């Protein structure tokens, strides 16, 4: 068999593989490193980066009465809403809640349990490590074990404006964060 005949035979196979790959999310090799992260939010050994995304959106806060502090008010986290994009800028999923849910464009999604947070600088949401619950739906989120929130910009509750007169009001605060999805090796 000549090289030319092998190429001719392999073209339909390559085309089929390319079409099949386009129907599911693919994960590129990662250059993400946990080295500079606080130890409390590092993913345990035995997991590898499966997907790196950038979430851009808003956090909603609601002005409520403080728990066990009658007459005092505070801004309380009410939920996130963000688009998830891959490193090339392609919209690949959404993040919303409550409960906190990461959903891929293929319909698969995960919720998670928070394990740890760590300060990420004044004016920024904290770093976060969550343990993923089993995925709902079969797809890109299948097998996700952990999710890290890193590279944070903004998203914290306002320091003022929540008073007894404004109880029940909601405010949306812009934020950006990288969400790093991990799977078992």
Strand order of the largest sheet: 1-2-3-4-5-6-7-8
Structural class: mainly beta
Radius of gyration: 21 Å
Tell me, rounded to a whole number, the average pLDDT: 87
The main sheet comes to: 8 strands, antiparallel, barrel
The number of helical segments is: 1
Shape estimate? globular
Total beta-strand segments: 8
Work out the strand percent: over 45%
**Percent helix range:** 10-25%
Low-confidence sequence ranges: 1-28
User: Ends: how far apart?
Assistant: 39 Å
- Helix-strand pattern: HEEEEEEEE
Could you characterize the architecture of this molecule?
- With 185 residues, the chain is mainly β.
- Helices cover 11% and strands 45% of the residues.
- It has one helix and eight strands, in the order αββββββββ.
- It has one helix at 3-22, and strands spanning 47-65, 73-85, 91-96, 101-104, 109-118, 127-132, 144-154, 170-184.
- It has an eight-stranded antiparallel β-barrel.
- The radius of gyration is 21 Å and the shape is globular.
In short:
With 185 residues, the chain is mainly β. Helices cover 11% and strands 45% of the residues.
Topology (elements, then pairings):
Elements lengths: L2 H20 L24 E19 L7 E13 L5 E6 L4 E4 L4 E10 L8 E6 L11 E11 L15 E15 L1
Antiparallel strand pairs: 1-2, 1-8, 2-3, 3-4, 4-5, 5-6, 6-7, 7-8
Short key terms for the protein model shown above:
single chain; 185 residues; mainly beta; 8-stranded antiparallel β-barrel; 8 strands; 11% helix; disordered N terminus
């Amino acid at each position: 068999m000549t090289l030319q005949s092998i190429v001719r035979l392999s073209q339909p196979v390559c085309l089929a593989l390319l079409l099949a790959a386009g129907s599911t999310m693919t994960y590129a090799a990662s250059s993400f490193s946990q080295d500079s992260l606080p130890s409390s939010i590092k993913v345990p050994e035995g997991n590898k980066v499966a997907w790196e995304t950038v979430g851009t959106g808003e956090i909603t806060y609601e002005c409520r009465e403080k728990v066990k502090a009658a007459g005092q008010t505070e801004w309380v986290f009410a939920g996130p809403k963000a688009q998830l994009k891959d490193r090339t800028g392609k919209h690949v999923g959404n993040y919303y809640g409550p409960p906190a849910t990461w959903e891929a464009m293929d319909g698969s999604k995960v919720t998670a349990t928070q394990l740890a947070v760590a300060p990420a600088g004044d004016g920024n949401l904290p770093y976060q490590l969550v343990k993923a619950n089993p995925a709902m739906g079969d797809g890109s989120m299948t097998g996700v074990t952990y999710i890290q929130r890193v590279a944070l910009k903004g998203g914290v509750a306002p320091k003022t404006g929540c008073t007894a007169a404004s109880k029940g009001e909601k405010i949306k605060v812009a934020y950006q964060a990288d969400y790093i999805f991990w799977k078992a090796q």
